[in-house]
Design brief:
By secondary structure, the protein is of the alpha+beta class. 32% of the residues lie in helices and 24% in strands. It has helices at residues 3-18, 32-35, 37-48, 172-176, 180-187, 220-223, 225-234, 265-270, 272-280, 285-295, 298-307, 351-365, 371-385, 419-432; strands spanning 24-25, 28-30, 53-57, 66-72, 75-81, 87-91, 106-108, 111-113, 120-122, 127-129, 153-157, 160-164, 195-196, 202-206, 251-254, 260-263, 313-315, 319-322, 325-333, 336-343, 345-346, 393-395, 404-406, 410-414. The protein has a nine-stranded antiparallel β-sheet with strand order 14-20-19-18-17-16-15-24-23. It has a four-stranded antiparallel β-sheet with strand order 6-5-4-7, with no helix packed on it. It has a three-stranded antiparallel β-sheet with strand order 1-2-22. Strand 11 (153-157) and strand 12 form a beta hairpin. Helix 10 packs across helix 11 (298-307). The longest helix has 16 residues, at 3-18. Residues 1-8 have low confidence and may be disordered. It binds FE2/S2 (inorganic) cluster and fe (ii) ion (FE2).
């Protein structure tokens, strides 16, 4: 360890408790941010219990009474479509003595009945029934005051339901900012402008910190080389083993508020002819192309067809839109993270096209897939390596100072630049600094 590292380490150890955001500075992050229980506790309080979190997709609760149980940081919630057709996010906690009122992960119900003493709640959250209410005597007992507590704010962007436990702060649209344009890419791959999430979930855990599930354009050709070799062999091509940072067709990009992406839209556009050819060979492919061309302006239709609905976008802090799925990141402990993969279907396309999307998803990210196991394994190895804390700084300075500013509100750079990690950590730092 050189003098500078030693100095930073000592200074940071002190500063961290005054201002934990200081663990990230000058393009480097202290590994305490990945391993410390105290930092994790602060992340729950200052990030996950405060900012907008993705909860689920409205199609998961398409019918009145449909529900899904989810977590907001450490807090269990129910996403439910009420008998009034409103989708709510309710705290999964009985207003009597605090028991979880809904134990199932999914289902349809007319009411939630607490197992402990039988209080019954409507799907709107309203308390409907209390066993032997006369025992409250003359005291006024208000059913209204004992409804299931809703999350402070719930909002929806094109079917993606978000909630925040903080009554104040930026609106969902302010939070998402220009990243909404990329959410649109995932959804407008449907000629009807709609996706559904009804293919189940592939739930995984890895022994590493939640922040590792980032957007990294530096690793794929190294870590996933065997996958690219298989794909190249199938296509009778040779494997191109390096990306070039001067290649303008593949870029890293960071929006405001920690939302980042690996932007390969230009590369995909150059493959449009092949994509059209592949689609035309599929049942429903010609219809899909025609429907897209009639639904969108010509340039946009081409870009959307070429993109195949994959913005490769991470929305800070807990959701990514990658390939044909929605990926939800659930921190459990500093060194333990759950990652849920929800495959999506496009509305208004043939079953064959959706089936092919599902098969592609399984190949890359499914339980016996290729790419996801590599990622989970390397995250665990990185977490293990951090136990060697004598040199605790993690270096994320690739491309620092070389970024290009784009007038539409993002910065971009070469595909191996770590501006995506820095972008996420700038948002992390800003939230962690707010007591
Ligand atoms: S804790 Fe729910 S009814 Fe008592
Ligand atoms: Fe990867």
């Amino acid at each position: 360890m050189n003098q500078r590292d030693m100095h930073l380490t000592d200074a940071t150890a002190d500063a961290a408790w005054m201002n934990p955001g200081e663990l990230f500075r000058d393009g480097r992050i202290h590994s305490d941010a990945y391993t410390s229980q105290a930092i994790f506790d602060l992340e729950m309080a200052r990030i996950f219990h405060r900012t907008w979190l993705y909860i689920g997709h409205e199609s998961e609760v398409g019918q009145q009474g449909d529900y899904r149980t989810r977590m907001m940081g450490r807090q269990p919630v129910i996403m439910v479509r009420g008998s009034d057709n409103v989708v709510r996010v309710l705290m999964n906690r009985c207003r009597h003595r605090g028991a979880v009122v809904c134990e199932h992960s999914r289902g349809n119900t007319s009411h939630f009945r607490c197992w402990f003493h039988g209080w019954v709640y409507e799907t709107t959250g309203r308390l409907a029934h209390v066993e032997t209410p006369e025992a409250y005597g003359d005291r006024e007992f208000s059913y209204e005051d004992h409804s299931l507590t809703p999350a402070a704010r719930v909002d929806n962007y094109r079917g993606l339901v978000f909630a925040s436990l903080s009554p104040a702060g930026p609106s969902l649209l302010e939070h998402l900012g220009p990243a909404t344009v990329m959410i649109d890419v995932a959804i407008d791959a449907s000629p009807d402008g709609k996706i559904t999430v009804d293919q189940g979930v592939h739930r995984t855990t890895f022994r590493g910190n939640w922040k590792m599930v980032g957007m990294d354009g530096y690793h794929p050709n190294i870590l996933h080389a065997s996958v690219w070799q298989i794909l190249a062999k199938r296509a009778n091509k040779s494997f191109r083993d390096t990306y070039s940072d001067s290649d303008k067709a593949v870029r890293t990009r960071a929006f405001l508020n920690g939302h980042v992406m690996l932007d390969n839209m230009q590369q995909r556009l150059s493959g449009l002819d092949k994509r059209l050819g592949d689609l035309k060979k599929m049942p429903g492919g010609e219809d899909y192309i025609a429907a897209m061309r009639s639904a969108y302006e010509p340039d946009r239709a081409e870009a959307l067809i070429a993109s195949a609905g994959d913005p490769h976008l991470g929305l800070f802090p807990n959701v990514q839109l990658i390939g044909n799925h929605i990926r939800v990141i659930q921190p459990i402990e500093p060194g333990l993270t759950q990652v849920d993969f929800y495959p999506t279907r496009l509305v208004g396309v043939s079953d064959e096209i959706n089936e092919q999307r599902l098969r592609q998803h399984e190949f890359f990210y499914g339980p016996a897939g290729t790419v996801s196991p590599d990622d989970a394994e390397i995250f665990e190895r990185a977490q293990n390596g951090m136990k060697a804390s004598y040199t605790p700084w993690i270096d994320l300075r690739r491309g620092m100072g070389l970024e290009e500013r784009d007038p539409k509100g993002s910065i971009s750079g070469g595909i191996t630049y770590e501006l995506t990690q820095r972008g996420q950590l700038e948002a992390w730092k800003a939230l962690m600094a707010q007591a």
